[in-house]
Design goal:
about 300 residues, alpha/beta, globular, 6 strands
């Protein structure tokens, strides 16, 4: 399985987003290290390996193993990655975590939401493996049929890409009911593509049909916030987002814009490779829809 983050150097991408993404699958000792880094990245960047080990009540060897879990050679590379990310953040400061109170004015809520979503999208773009995106685009262009598996909020995001691909002549369907999803997955083979979308990567109704489609030989693509999730394990290509849970705004809600960014990139890639046909179909669709628009006053 090729994942979007494992193919990129964490020193060149968002190391904090990488740590958040793998945190749920870490051992207890490694989770303590991750929590310390996420809580005080600047302090850790300025600390020696011995100081971090003492702060986390663990050994130097455990710190080194944690770094290798992230794809880093060792602790010096972790400090370098943290310093580089902190430098980018200081150059363009934005609050990555927002908290609201019942008395906050909506003007402040709006500014905070904008800052948080822009940061999440920037982190998603920074750590997204473009090579993996290109592989997914190639598979979509070649596909005999494309299945989308998603439920709840992710289904709304999936529907957008489903409708846009449908408009340019790509045979596809969105399945939000698991019974229908597994039936369609069973009909797939090596000529087809299946895309599963889930922020947590643990939604059974999405993981199950994607795994079946892969067993049948289809190229499977996962869009998730967690590169070691069950959904990622069921995929040939993993495209990761970098959204965070915030008060009043669970991770699934915060993930919508980052998911849309990834799916939009897939769509543009398909249109680029099928430009002549896609342009003709989009022009015809625009003309057809124009007849159903009311005249402006």
């Amino acid at each position: 399985m090729a994942t979007s983050t494992e193919n990129n150097s964490p020193t060149a991408t968002g190391i904090l987003a990488r740590i958040r993404g793998v945190a749920p699958t870490l051992t207890a000792a490694h989770q303590r290290i991750a929590e310390t880094i996420l809580a005080e990245p600047a302090a850790v960047a300025a600390s020696t390996i011995t100081e971090l080990a003492e702060r986390c009540a663990t050994s130097l060897t455990t710190i080194t193993r944690f770094c290798r879990e992230l794809g880093l050679a060792g602790y010096p590379e972790l400090r370098l990655a943290l310093a580089a990310e902190l430098g980018r953040t200081n150059a363009s400061p934005r609050d990555s975590v927002i908290a609201f109170s019942p008395d906050d004015p909506l003007s402040m809520v709006l500014r905070s939401l904008l800052a948080s979503d822009m940061r999440a999208m920037e982190e998603t773009a920074a750590q997204l493996d473009v090579t993996a995106v290109e592989r997914a685009v190639s598979a979509l262009v070649r596909a005999r049929f494309i299945d989308f598996f998603a439920v709840s909020g992710s289904a709304g995001v999936a529907m957008d890409l489903h409708l846009r691909l449908h408009a340019i002549g790509r045979p596809c369907a969105l399945w939000t009911d698991v019974h229908s999803a597994v039936c369609s997955a069973n009909a797939r083979d090596h000529r087809d593509v299946a895309i599963g979308i889930s922020h947590s990567g643990t939604t059974a109704e999405v993981v199950e049909p994607l795994a079946i489609a892969r067993q049948r030989g289809a190229t499977t693509v996962a869009v998730t916030n967690f590169p070691r999730s069950p959904l990622a394990e069921a995929a040939d290509i993993v495209l990761t987002t970098a959204a965070q849970d915030t008060p009043f705004r669970a991770g699934g809600v915060a993930a919508r814009h980052t998911q849309m960014l990834v799916l939009d990139c897939l769509y543009i890639g398909v249109v680029q490779r099928t430009h002549e046909t896609s342009n003709q179909l989009l022009t015809a669709a625009t003309d057809a829809v124009a007849k159903h628009r009311l005249p402006q006053r």
